[in-house]
Amino acid sequence: MAHSTKASAQSALGELDIDMSDADTAFADEWSTWLDTHLPAMHSRLAEADSAATKAALSREWQSLMAAGKWAAITWPSEFGGRNATARQQLLFYLTSADRRVPPLAGRIGLNLCGPTLIAHGTPEQRQRFLSPMLDGRHVWCQGFSEPGAGSDLASLRTRGVIDGDDLLITGQKIWTSGAQQSDWMFALVRTDPDAPKRHGISFVLVPMNADGVDIRPIRQMSGDAGFSGVFLDEVRVPLTNVVGKLNDGWNVTRTTLANERAILFMGQQLALTATLRKSIALAKTPDPHGNRAADDPELRDRIAQAWIDVELVRLNGMRNLAKVLSGNEPGPEGSMSKLFGQHVEQHLHELALDLGGEFGILDRGAADAPDGGKWALGWLRTRASTIGGGTSEIQRNVLAERILGQPRDPWADA
Length: 415
Hints:
3 domains, Butyryl-CoA Dehydrogenase, subunit A, domain 2, Butyryl-Coa Dehydrogenase, subunit A, domain 1, 10 strands, alpha+beta, globular, four-stranded mixed beta sheet, 12 helices
């Protein structure tokens, strides 16, 4: 029988005492050893990449390499190329990945969202067809959920799928589709029974992005980025065999998630906030072109101290939820608390960084005196959307009001 040992891990999440079985130790050692062999070369190649296209190709290549080692989707069952990783092993994997600066995978949206859905609800034929190329990066996926009139109230979606023989003819529009330009497939919610109640009559459909009638239009944001797109669908013909689960039962299909991964997702947010705070402190200590240091301003020092406290609160709340999962319980509403508070902390951190840069803080990329090459002005612009993406602050407040305070649901939610 495997025994349990106590191991400590120092990271941006603080000093963690983790009860590790022999299997956990072997898992962590194998992951670290694999990175020793493969990661340095990929870091070097990414550093030398001189274009976005080259970096995108390397990202797919890295995913293929990780898939070959069964590291691309560790929570998937082993029969589909995963490792059946426990929540504790996910934690160890994430901590090592952050510490070693493991590059992100090109197909992480498919791996984290669509893959588990296919494993839970897909037919054997769908799993055989889609999971392997999703795993190794041959197929990159995007999510077609939000619409111009159906964001927070997703069940109000209006994209329609009309049955035509053995096919669906899909017409409508999806918005804020991350990575659509680089994606091969989209998993989308489509209304296939317009007469059914709001949460019924919706189907989960797999749509090839190169199909006739698919029009991808990148959305240029005020930061200059165009990572999101509008996807227009004009009678796109998709076989009914691409419907996952039962026709008109897509709302229930989409509720399939990996509970343990939800609890651990806070670590990405926490590590990003900690990195931003550390860089802000370094900026405060650096003299501007006039020789002035923000660190000498007592008001700015107070704001840095408050930012540290806020980041620490995000960490502690996330660890509380993680402790539930590691104890075998379901994650609670702490996830919404982390999202709500963390997204506002992210905005405040970038506002602080602009002020730490003084009169030079608002200079954009390319300006000679822009602090850190203009990254803070860019970051401030990007974080204006932090309270919208991935679930608005209003939605998170609703979740907390209903699940903690016992308040009734909004009338529109069941309309």
